[in-house]
Amino acid sequence: MRLHTIKLSGFKSFAEPTAFGLPGQLVGVVGPNGCGKSNIMDAVRWVLGESKASELRGETMQDVIFNGSALRKPASRASVELVFDNTSQRVPGAWGRYAEISVRRVLTRDGASSYHINQQPVRRRDVHDLFLGTGLGPRAYAIIGQGTIGRIIESRPEELRLFLEEAAGVSKYKERRRETAARLLDARANLSRVQDILTELQAHSAKLEQQAAQAQRYRDLQARLRRRQQQLAWLKLCQAETDGAQAQALEQQVQLELDAQTAALRRLEADTETARQAHYAAGEALNQAQGDLYAAAAEVARLESEIRHLRDHRQRVQQRLQQLQQQRAQWEGRASAAAEERARLGPQEQAAAAQAAALATQCQQHSAALPAVQAALQAAQQQLVRARRALAERQQALGLLGAQQRAHEQQRQQWQQRAQRLHSEAQALAAQAADELRLAPLQAEWEQAQQRQQQAQDLLLQLQLEQADGERQRRQCQQQAQAQGQALAQCQARLDALQALQTQLQQAGQLPQWLARQGLQGHAALWQRLRPAAGWATAVEAALRERVQALELPSLEAALALADAPPPGALVLFALPDRAEQADALDQAAHVPVAAAEAINAAKAAQYSDAAPALQPLAQHLHCPEPALQALLARWLSPCYAAANLPEALAARATLGRSELIYTPQGHSVGAQHLGFYAAAPEQSGWLERAQEIEQLQQQLRGLQGLAEQARLAEAAAEAACSQTGQRLQQARAAASAAQAQAHALQVELLRLSQQAEHRQQRAAQLAQERAEAEQHLQQVQMQQQHVQAQQQALQDELQGQQQALQQAEAEQARAEHALQQASAQARALERQAQEAEFARRSLQARADELQRNQAAAAQQAAELAGQAQQALAELETLADAAAQAALQVALAARHRCEQELGARRSAHDGLSADLRASDARRMQLEHGLAPLRARLSELQLRLQAAQLSQQQQRQSLEEAGVEVQDGPGLQALARSVEADAVQLASLPAQVQRSQRELEALGDVNLAALQELAVAQQRLQFLGEQNHDLQQAIDTLEGAIRTIDTETRSLLGQTFEAVNGQFGRIFPELFGGGRAQLQWSEGEILEAGVQVLAQPPGKKNQTIHLLSGGEKALTAIALVFAIFHLNPAPFCLLDEVDAPLDDANTERYAKLVTRMSFETQFLFISHNKITMEMAQQLIGVTMQEQGVSRIVAVDLQSAQDMLEVQA
């Protein structure tokens, strides 16, 4: 594997994309100091994975990006690509199958770094692995930077060991061991964490097992409780349904019976009502028949009476006369008897009236005496009330005096305690007087603290004003910096866009590829070397047309080789005269066309002075720093003239020859007989104008960068000043706060002591006054206590007298009440006797009145009877019975018929009455029988409602318990569980209560413990497996480390011996004698360092530090080349390694490098001519543009062949 090409873009001073090939084994990089040669070495080191900016001669990694120059803006990114020829397939791994391997690294301004191998994004680690063990790397022995060759030999043993490890190829083993050790450390850490987690998890699992057992017990109890509750609800539901069914059946039965009884009662009531109506009708018929019978009987009786009256009327009249006489005698006897009885009742009535009057008098007397008794009772009661009130008043007064006595005693104790407390406080105040002696010094100290505080506040205010001014100035600087930054960014963006457009147009089409194949891609186009005047770039482009992109060749004969493969587009090639020609000829050639054009123009101006303005050659508006190129452009533009505008050109066209043209700044051309408007193709136009604008933008950018840098520096200075002022302000604030705190503390203490002294004085006077007042109040309270005691004694005496008076009043009230009760009883007895006597009087009077009426009635009746007797005597004479006998016969027949009808109707009426009485009896019996049925029905309805309510409740309980009551299978399963458990309704409530008590006895239960335990067990299993895997991994990693150590130890030993032998051979070759060797430092070979012992010819030095700079460099070269003999790197970079060597040592060094170049490709930087002579290819690095490096390739073999041809 060898380095084929290096491509740089935006890396340090290589602003433009630069690529140079390395075809030979010895490639030298030459150029003046500071032109950027070492940047090539840094680029190679950087793309191989260097991550330390100091190794790349920078402060930060952003320093590798092109930072701009006077004419260029900073690059946005840095890119370096190394292309390797891998036809020998020395690269191990997956990339070894590619014949060409490109490694590229890109870094952008935002800090994004990316690596690519064969255009595929990879990691930095992949790049390290690609070159691991090959001697290549950011700090490998194959890349020796500027000034580091001497430091190699002076490196510490541990650093020299790195070169030996790279040569032995154990760096990859070391990297693998480091990775393995890191993995082992991670595995052990993971194992420790896993074991810690396992320990914690096992303890947690033990707790969770207990909690899970308790949770399982809780769930089992809960399930059993739920099952028992469901079963209880089911049995209650079944019982309720049974009870409901039974109650409903009984209700229906009772209802039917009640309905039957009610119907029977209604029928019986209807029958009874019918019977009653019939009875009423029969009664009416009976009454009618009775009336008829009575009428017939009356008629018969009348007739018979009439006949008898007629027959017997005389007899009856006679008898009546006799009866009337007898009745008259009886009535007269009755009247006399009544008179006698009335006479007999008169004394009784008088006696009764006298008795009633006497009793009334007694009642009036007792009634008159009763108010006196009541008044005596009222007086006794009032006396009792007054006695009780007087006793209560004395007791209340005595209670008040007792309360006053207790209050006075409490006041006495309070005043006594207050006097003692005031005395103690006065003693304490006397003790505080010693603290008041610090007032005077404390006042002075406080005044000093106030002065310090005022000074600190003044300083703080001054610093705040300074900070405000600094902040305002910083904002102004910041705004200026932002404005400059925006202007710079705009300018930079415009410049980037134009440069990108130029680059894009340069790379557009197939011509760039053709130029690359022909090796002409590094040649600058003509427009890059021209500097047209302002405003004439378009005109120059219009005049030159395709020649604006012309390329320079050493000679036009060299273009003959391109005829076989012509370019895919228009291409102009030109060659300038040989630089060996005389400079005056160049100058003449450069100025002759211009002079000729000026002469022609002058002649034309003289010829047509009146017709047209003077014309200037277009070449005068174009500047080129190369005289030969200026002369060529003058010849190309000799027939071209310039006019400020189109009217001037048209006015001057008469002066033109056949092939001459006048161009305006817009590119329009005017010939003698034609006018052409310029409109070039986009890809072929604007080169000079854009280049001119790019140059102007670069100049503007440099100015803006300067202004931006000044603004940034001003902002930084303002920021630093603000920061410094802020620090001072913070210090001043702290000092002011401290001074304020101290002054405040002193003020507080001073105020405290002053207030304490004032308070002590005031309090002392107040205490004295309060003590006097307390003594006075104490004496007053004691006098009041004595007065209250005297009042209490007097009230005690009065209380005893009032108690005796109360007892006497109570006895008097009792006597009055007894007398009133006796008087009331006697009055009530007399009232009853008076009422009875009055009743007897009234009865006798009523009897006497009745007898008087009877007597009067009897006398009247006797008088009437006497009159009737006289009438009967008169009637007797007129009586006859013939007609009456005939009517009697008719009346007897009618009466007989009425009697038969009455007997029939009476029989019917009696039967209906018996039936009605029987129906009423049955109705009453039925009504009495309905009441129990109604009560039974109500009871059954209540039982049915209770059963239905119980069913609803139990169904709701089942639904809440998760049993679908509408689902047949759910209820059937519940019924089967009841049958399976053989539970009874009577025992289930006790079981439910027992389960509830067991649940309550469990207390708080972690119901999530089962899930947590399952998760913990699963995690335990996973962690156990992980623990086992980690243990196995640790064993495997430890075995791998032991294997790597064994192999490393073996390889290091072998490599050490081989390198030591080569080092001992090459060292005398470079020095022309002497001896050198390597040796291990003390310790294990895997940890020991490498020490170098070198003794040049004629020296017996014991340490390498005694050698000169050149000797150290040669020793280091010998060591490096000894390593190369053992493990040749694909290429070696040497940056001015020969700088400290003299010519003799340089020749030996050059011979050794030349001999080693058969196996290793060397890229070296040197200023030594001897070293340059050994190069097969020299790469020149120039910096014509300040800050921008360019490559100039020189093939020495081709140059030598060219010289031989010319010779």
Automatic annotation (TrEMBL):
InterPro entries: P-loop_NTPase (IPR027417), RecF/RecN/SMC_N (IPR003395), SMC (IPR024704), SMC_hinge (IPR010935), SMC_prok (IPR011890). It is found in: Cytoplasm. It comes from Serpentinimonas raichei. Residues 524-651 form the SMC hinge domain. Its main location: cytoplasm. CDD domains: ABC_SMC_barmotin. Residues 191-341, 370-508, 694-889, 1013-1040 form a coiled coil. Homodimer. Contains large globular domains required for ATP hydrolysis at each terminus and a third globular domain forming a flexible hinge near the middle of the molecule. These domains are separated by coiled-coil structures. It comes from the Bacteria. ATP binds at P32, N33, G34, C35, G36, K37, S38, N39. The gene is smc. One of its GO terms (biological process) is DNA replication. Required for chromosome condensation and partitioning. GO terms for molecular function: ATP binding; ATP hydrolysis activity; DNA binding. SUPFAM superfamilies: P-loop containing nucleoside triphosphate hydrolases (SSF52540). Keywords: ATP-binding, Coiled coil, Cytoplasm, DNA-binding, Nucleotide-binding. This is Chromosome partition protein Smc. GO terms for cellular component: chromosome; cytoplasm. Residues 3-1189 form the RecF/RecN/SMC N-terminal domain.
